[in-house]
Design a protein that fits this description.
eight-stranded mixed sheet; 36 strands; five-stranded parallel sheet; Rossmann fold
């Protein structure tokens, strides 16, 4: 039980003050007049003022409450290294026994695992949640069983009791880590980009290790091995092999005795982009569609265009020397022999042989394609003549031969069955309202894929791969009618743009491709194919587990599947002859960036509450009581602060000046004062 006196005034405070002043004035007047009963009158006034202040004796019936100790048990990934997990559980059991034997003390165990995604150990959030569920006045202490690697110390709560860290790990622990210090998200194809890596040893690392072997693999290919130094930044120049996403994996072999090899690898994903697309446009003669090609290519700021047009054939006999047929000498040798490999795409627009380009130059164009170049032929009536490009060495790479017929008939281009599955022509808008073309060269396909047909279903657009290169044939010179809006026009700009980008090997326009897109740990696997059916995709996880996943066709030529990867690391995908790789999360999660047990992260919180840090390998400290504000840790002990919290069961209030007592005391004091003054 506990009692206290408090006041419950019957009138406002200012009234009490006014009456007290009034009484003081009256007593002062009595003293001035020399009245002998002034003391009794003062006592009577005091009794009246106390009665108005209403003093009350409050007695509480209390029940003592137990103290609460929060035990934070770290079960994150870094706590599963070596024997830390068993260390933690043994310490938790021993602490639970010791605290339960103390009496009037309860233990609240809080298990914390890895945060969502790659957030690491969120101990401060777990501590804040635990404090929110308990009365602060009962918290006697906080004990953390952890390796001390905490990743949310910026959310450190206000703790009303001592905080102690009993950390796992051993003094002999050591670890080796590979980290990427600098890696760009994009890089220009053909130009080296510098990555900065570093290999570091931490903890009780072996003495004398100065170099280590490192494997480098691109897109899951066989790795190349290099000897690199330890403890120094490594500048590594890398040239991307292809456009789109390039996945580069760096790995260092695990050494005996190190804590983990999860941080011995690193993944870098860099998108390869072209700096400038170099295009050579050769127009055989001026016509209405010539400007269409030029406008298309010049509208793209990333395209460097070299364009020349033969305005007058050299066989025209008017006495003008050949050397004067152009304003400047046409650099045929430089373009078609010396610098042809500098171009990403060569376009022949209604070009026919007129002696300007010798056969050796055209033979070089064919070789250029076989070595990875691209040629697009936009054919007009010239393709059906004896001077056709098909009657030159370029015929070795062309996908269709002319029949010598030119069909001057109106027709509407139609996407073929294969074209509906090919990324160049799939999804082109408003096919049913396309305007007609008025001329088509009749050709017979020899190789490749027919994406569009024209008059009487004759081939109109044919694509083909020749060894490392690509070739396209458009058997009409009337695509410009769409650009002019003839009878509604059509998607001329989009079609020609896709066509040019497919020929330059843009990854998003590959007709046979496999790739994946990651969102967190969820992977969307995408397979593009001209086949109507594809088999399941085979997934090899970082742990070498093999999973087969069926693919579902979501639109013509596009198959998809969704997979949730449990592990962080490199996943390999295989479907038919297509392969792809994708990295999920960092190769070294946040939990493994630093693995050596330490108190550095929590020292500010521990010092602020005057707690202590102890290594479990040195033994379990004893538990004792300490007064609030005193040091709460010693050489081999940790302290808890008893809170002496209680619960009030009931309250009894008793007035100290009941009305009858006030009336009696006031009357008696006034009567005594009057009798004393009257006798005098």
């Amino acid at each position: 039980m506990s009692g206290q006196i408090f006041f419950d005034p019957l009138v406002p405070l200012w009234v009490l003050i006014f009456l007290a002043v009034l009484c003081a004035v009256g007593i002062s007047f009595a003293l001035w007049r020399g009245l002998s009963g002034w003391a009794f009158r003062a006592l009577a006034g005091l009794v009246i003022l106390l009665a108005l202040a209403a003093p009350v004796l409050q007695v509480e019936n209390r029940a003592a409450l137990s103290d609460i100790v929060l035990l934070l048990v770290d079960q994150s990934a870094s706590q599963r290294l070596s024997d830390r997990e068993s260390q933690t559980e043994e310490a938790a059991k021993l602490l639970s026994t010791r605290i339960s034997n103390r009496g009037n003390t309860e233990l609240r165990r809080i298990n914390l695992t890895d945060g969502i995604g790659d957030a690491g150990t969120e101990m401060m959030q777990a501590l804040a949640d635990g404090l929110a569920q308990e009365p602060r006045g009962r918290i006697a202490g906080v004990i953390a069983l952890s390796d001390g690697l905490v990743h949310d110390m910026d959310r450190m709560p206000d703790v009303p009791a001592p905080v102690h860290l009993l950390h796992t790990g051993r003094a002999a622990d050591w670890d080796r880590r590979l980290s990427v210090r600098n890696a760009p998200a994009f890089a220009i194809l053909g130009e080296p980009v510098t990555l900065t890596l570093r290999i570091e040893d931490s903890g009780a690392a072996p003495v004398g290790a100065e170099e280590v072997s490192m494997d480098i693999s691109v897109d899951g290919a066989e790795p190349d091995r290099y000897i690199v130094p330890i403890g120094r930044d490594i500048e590594l120049p890398v040239t991307l092999p292809h456009g789109g996403r390039n996945v580069i994996q760096f790995a260092v072999a695990a050494e005996e005795g190190e804590l983990t090899d999860r941080n011995n690898a690193a993944l870098v994903q860099i998108n390869g982009v072209r700096d400038r697309l170099r295009v050579l446009l050769v127009s055989g003669e001026p016509y209405s569609g010539g400007r269409t090609w030029r406008n298309l290519l010049k509208s793209d700021a990333s395209v460097d265009l070299v364009h020349f047009t033969i305005l007058r054939p050299p066989e025209k006999q008017d006495g003008v020397p050949v050397s004067e047929l152009s304003l400047i000498a046409f650099p045929t040798r430089e373009l078609f022999l010396e610098k042809i490999d500098d171009f990403d795409l060569i376009i022949f627009d209604r070009y026919q042989r007129r002696g300007i380009l010798p056969s050796i130059y055209l033979e070089n164009v064919a070789s250029y394609v076989r070595e990875g170049g691209a040629v697009l032929v936009a054919a007009g009536p010239d393709y059906a003549t004896a001077n056709s490009l098909y009657r030159s060495p370029i015929s070795q790479i062309l996908p269709a031969s002319p029949t010598a017929r030119v069909l001057d008939e109106e027709f509407r281009p139609v996407i073929s069955e294969l074209g509906a599955r090919h990324p160049v022509t799939t999804g082109l808008p408003d096919q049913e309202v396309w305007g007609p073309w008025l001329r088509q060269v009749d050709v017979i396909p020899d190789a490749g894929t027919v994406l569009m047909t024209g008059y009487e279903d004759r081939p109109l657009l044919i694509l083909n791969r020749v060894e490392k290169g690509r070739v396209a044939l458009l058997a009409s010179d009337h695509a410009w009618l769409w650009a002019r809006g003839y009878q509604g026009g059509g998607p001329q700009m989009e079609l020609l743009r896709r066509l040019a980008h497919w020929m330059m090997g843009e990854p998003e326009l590959e007709e046979e491709a496999l790739w994946a897109e990651a969102t967190g740990q969820s992977v969307r696997i995408i397979r593009r194919s001209l086949n109507k059916n594809v088999g399941p995709v085979t997934i090899t996880t970082p742990s070498k587990e093999i999973i087969e996943l069926p693919l579902k066709e979501v639109e013509p030529g596009r198959f998809e599947a969704t997979y949730d990867g449990a592990d962080i690391g490199l996943y390999r995908l295989v479907n038919d002859n297509e392969k792809a790789v994708i990295g999920l999360g960092p190769a070294a999660p946040r939990e493994f960036i630093s693995t050596i047990a330490t108190s550095d992260d929590m020292v500010r919180l521990i010092d602020a509450r005057r707690g202590g840090v102890f290594a479990l390998e040195d033994g379990m400290p004893s538990v004792r009581n300490v007064r609030e504000g005193r040091p709460a840790a010693g050489r081999d002990w940790i302290g808890l602060t008893p809170r002496k919290a209680f619960e009030t069961l009931d309250i009894a209030r008793t007035p100290l000046l009941p009305a009858w007592l006030v009336l009696f005391l006031t009357g008696a004091l006034i009567l005594v004062a009057w009798m004393r003054e009257g006798r005098r």
